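Fig. S4 source data, part A: sequence.
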Amino acid sequence: MIEILDPTDLPRARDTGALVADILQTLKSRSTVGTNLLDIDRWAKAMILEAGAESCYVDYEPSFGRGPFGHYICTSVNDAVLHGRPYDYALADGDLLSLDLAVCLAGVVADSAISFVVGDSAQPESLALIDATERALQAGIAAAGPGVRVGDISHAIGSVLSAAGYSINTQFGGHGVGSTMHQDPHVANAGRPGRGYRLRPGLLLALEPWIMADTAELVTDADGWTLRSATGCRTAHSEHTIAITDDGAEILTLPAPARQ
């Protein structure tokens, strides 16, 4: 399903995007050495419910998972890159943490992810991974607009990741959002320009470049959810929800300082 929002729905989409961005930034500030992943999940739950929003994850039960996800946020550490299920783990200095959050507020979903290093011991490899996903995300956003093909966005993202020397897995990528979290079109992190669905004003897209340092192969944890690099290498993941407008694309999940 591809859902096109009415222009009157855009203010609600902005509100949801702002909520997601603010929760992620709060959780980032609290994620220090010794913080437990289960505490991050509890904090996310409290902020979602306090805002009168709903989690898109807690009851999420797609074909590729194992039963309902059962948590309010994805917490992926080091070699984990997607769908990291929170568990009893205390963050260590130098851990590379990715937080992925999707919520629904007033009937509209927004989805965003950030990656960052915990503490003061940042490995150059970790910073390079994060930088590549952030630059690829900006390239994908810059390529988006009315009349643009999905393949144009995929090509823009993939060009940055490939130029940085990373292999690209296209099994999981960006997607449409609206009244539900995962909708068509699928936006792969590599593709051919001029191909695929033509974007229309009112379409919401979650663009999410993610990479692994030395492989494109994923393995699944025993929890049935957490996806890790097959080689144990580090990973990173960056994501924004954007709205296609009459004259371009608007980022809905910017942190508060960037929204001014």
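Fig. S4 source data, part B ends here. The chain has five helices and 14 strands.
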